[in-house]
Amino acid sequence: MSVFKSGFVGIFGKPNAGKSTLLNSILNEKLAIVSPKAQTTRNKILGILTEKNYQIVFSDTPGILKSNYKLHDRMLQEIEQAKQGTDVILYVADVKDSVEENKELIKQFKIKAPIILALNKCDKSNNHQIEICKKEYDSLKQIKAILPISAIHKSGIDELKQAIAELLPEMPPYYEEDTITDKPMRFFVSELIREKLFFLLKEELPYHAAVMVRQYEEKENLTKIQADIIVSRETQKGIIIGKGGSMIKEIGQSARLDIEKFIEKKVFLELFVKVRKDWRNNDLYLKEYGY
After folding, report:
1. Domain CATH code at residue 144
2. Residue 177 lies in a domain
3. What does each of the 291 residues of the chain score in pLDDT, given as a tens digit?
4. What CATH number is given to the structural domain containing 260?
5. Beta-bridge partners for 218
6. Distance separating alpha carbons of residues 62 and 79, to the nearest angstrom
7. Which of 23, 62, 217, 285 has the fewest Cβ atoms nearer than 10 Å?
8. Which of 136, 167, 198 is the last residue of a domain?
C-alpha cells in the first residue's frame, strides 16, 4: 500500500515576485489574478492540487509590504493567517532581486516549517547567474531546497511539486479530489474585474479600487452579473467611466470574456462605479468588500 501525503503550503515573497503566476502554473488553472504591477493580490487564496500520492493545499498570499492603510493591515493579516498550520513554506524570489532583502524577510519567519526557495524568472537569467544566486542563499539553514523555475513558462514546476511533496507529512487528503479552491464564484468574478483595472488604468488608480459583486444569477444559458467598482474620489470615477463611457465599456468587455472562460458559460455583465471616500481606511467598507 503506497503512502499518501497531504499538507498546507504557504506561498510567500515580495510583491511582484510571481507568486500568483506560480500558483496558476502549478494548478494549470487561473485562480489568482496577475498583472505587471506589484501588490495585485489582496486576499489569501487557497489552491488545492491532488495527485495520485499527495495533496498540496497552497495558500497564495499578498506580497510582504509596509502598511500605509487599514487595507494593508488586512493584507498583512492574511499573510500571518497563512503561516498558521503551514507544513512547508514556499518562498518565491525573483532571481534578479536583492538577495539580502529576501534573506532578511526569510529570517523573520518564526515558524519551524521547512522552506523551499523558488528562484523565479530564471528564463531572464543564465546558468552562471543562477548558480551564484543559489550560493548566496545557501547560508540559511532553514532552506531545504533551492529550485530555479520560470512560473510564466512552467519550467521547473514538476521538480518543485516533487520537492514539496517529499516534505509533507503522511496524512489523508483534506479535500475531495475534484476540489481546487475554497473561494466562492463571486470572489473570482470580482477579482477578474479588478484585474482589468490593473491592465487598463494607469499608475495608482487600481490601488484605490475595489470590486463588489452585487448580483450573481445563474440561468439555463446565461449568468447575469452586476458589480460595483468602488473608488475613493469623484475624479477617479470619471476616469473609470471614461469619455462617453468608453473606459467602463472596455473594462466590462474584457472582464466578461475572462469570466465566460472561467465559468464556461455566457455572461451578461453590468458594471457601476461608486465613490466611497477613503474606503481603504474604513473598517465597515473593508469588511463589506471582503477584506
Report:
1. 3.40.50.300
2. no
3. 579 999 999 999 998 899 999 999 999 998 998 888 888 889 999 999 999 999 999 999 998 878 888 999 999 899 888 888 899 999 999 999 999 999 999 988 887 899 999 999 999 888 998 999 999 998 888 899 999 999 999 999 999 999 999 999 999 999 999 999 989 999 999 999 999 999 999 878 999 999 999 999 999 889 999 999 999 999 999 999 999 999 999 999 999 999 999 999 999 999 999 999 999 999 999 999 999
4. 3.30.300.20
5. 223
6. 7
7. 217
8. 167
Query: Do 79 and 203 reside in the same domain of the chain?
Result: no
Structural domain for 253, as ranges? 185-288
Closest CA to 121 of 91, 161, 148: 148
Number of domains present in the structure of the chain? 2
Contact 71, 291 (CB under 8 A): yes
Residue found by looking up cell 472582464 in the block: 255
